[in-house]
Design brief:
Number of strands: 0
Largest sheet: none
Strand content: under 5%
Order of helices and strands: HHHHHHHHHHHHHH
């Protein structure tokens, strides 16, 4: 990358990026040959500005990049830009536009890479996320099932990715109350991770947590308690601490303990969850308020 783009002085706005890109373009002996480099710089700018949550300027950079890619009929980069714009709309809570841009990207990825490609599989996964956000859960399930089938057709698919997808699909089934389906996919996810020489402990902990919640809803309390303990132990082993997930595992464990009549122990684990959340969430957060109210209710029941 040009010296103008050293890590210490990356431009923070679209206008700053354009000014520097135009300076580079003006210094080129053959500006026409600079067009592909300009496309790359604009895409880099779009991604950087998105990472800084400057979504409007990110959108401007990607739209300018899109005009260059479309002019050159560059299907791969058109699809990547459409996917990036979809991500921006998702961050802006505009799920409808996000879905439309992803569907356009999907058509181009299929033309460029074929049906069973990582790009197509990833796009179906993203479509599932958007459908879930819109509470269109059956559509989310359909997209996730297609995503998983595509992953299975790709020889070098990361098993951790496939296990995560099974876990995410189980989460959607859990949301609509199809608990046996949720358990089916959670078991598949667990088997994949546990058979790997190097296990992704974060994924495994998430799987244990979902298995605990699902079994608790089925009133299979012995199994639920077993998986709660496994989830907590596994989250505690993570090198990169995930405090929010650990606090969720504590509160889920507390709920099951309360359901089984172990109120004093339940309050102990609810306190562990609250201790973490009070450090990472603002005091007026609804989740904090809910847990505090739950604790008061449980104390009164003693």
């Amino acid at each position: 990358m040009d010296d103008n783009f050293s890590a210490a002085n990356l431009p923070q706005t679209y206008e700053q990026w354009i000014k520097i890109i135009e300076q580079i373009e003006a210094s080129e002996q053959n500006p026409q040959s600079f067009e592909q480099e300009k496309l790359k710089l604009l895409m880099y700018a779009g991604n950087y500005l998105m990472s800084k949550n400057n979504l409007e300027d990110s959108k401007k950079a990607f739209n300018q990049a899109l005009s260059i890619a479309q002019k050159n009929k560059d299907l791969k980069n058109i699809a990547e830009i459409l996917s990036a714009l979809a991500q921006i709309y998702y961050f802006e809570n505009d799920a409808e536009n996000a879905e439309q841009f992803l569907l356009q990207a999907l058509d181009l990825y299929i033309k460029e890479f074929g049906q069973n490609s990582k790009q197509v599989a990833d796009t179906y996964n993203n479509l599932a996320i958007i459908a879930e956000k819109q509470n269109q859960l059956q559509k989310a399930i359909d997209y996730m099932l297609t995503h998983i089938e595509k992953l299975k057709q790709i020889p070098d698919t990361d098993p951790n990715y496939l296990a995560t997808s099974f876990n995410n699909l189980a989460g959607i089934y859990l949301s609509i109350g199809e608990l046996q389906k949720a358990l089916e996919y959670l078991r598949k996810a667990q088997i994949i991770i546990e058979n790997l020489p190097e296990k992704n402990l974060k994924v495994l902990a998430d799987i244990f947590n979902n298995q605990a919640v699902t079994n608790a809803q089925l009133k299979h309390y012995d199994l639920a308690l077993k998986f709660h303990k496994k989830a907590i132990e596994t989250y505690q082993q993570l090198e990169n601490k995930d405090d929010y997930s650990l606090s969720t595992a504590y509160s889920n464990y507390a709920n099951t303990l309360y359901e089984t009549g172990k109120t004093i122990e339940a309050i102990k684990y609810l306190d562990k969850s609250l201790e973490i959340l009070t450090k990472i969430l603002p005091g007026n957060n609804p989740q904090l308020k809910h847990l505090q109210e739950t604790k008061e209710k449980w104390l009164k029941s003693l």
